[in-house]
Every structure is written in C-alpha cells, then in structure tokens.
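**Protein of interest**
===
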Amino acid sequence: MDPQKTTVLVVDDEPSIVDAVATSLRYEGYEVETEASGRAAILTAHRASPALIILDVMLPDLDGFESPAGSGPRACTRPCCSSRPRTPWRTRSPA
C-alpha cells in the first residue's frame, strides 16, 4: 500500500493507543482518520473511504467486528484488523 494519499481509519476508545498508531502511520506518510466509538467509525468510514481500518474489537458502544461495516461483517468492503493485543490478531479482507 503506497502511503501517498492513502487513508487509514484508526478506531479505539483508548486515546494513547489512537495517538501511537496514528502518529506512526502519519510518520510513514499515510492520511489518518481517528474515532473513539463504533458509531462514529461507521460514519467516518462512509465519508472518508479508508483503504484500511484498524480497530479495537472491544469498543464500548458497538462490537468492533460489526462497527466498520455498519451492517455486519460481510458488508465491510475494506480490509480490517484488530488493535487489541490481548486477543489473537485477526485480519479480514473484503469478501
């Protein structure tokens, strides 16, 4: 993925994680959108059309597996990966 003009959405309710991930991505040249809730992530994903979504699967308002799609995991058209290190890393490509 070429960082030039590529947008990544980072979703986590812990500001320190969002800051660390977003700072690293910006340093590498990516455009970064951030959100702290699943509901906000749905709106931002539709507006910004990120190439990748990095999200916490344990969000307080919505299950992180459902959030990026807005209507279930099969509806997600973007690659997603979880940012919760205490669970096994999972990645999912669009169907």
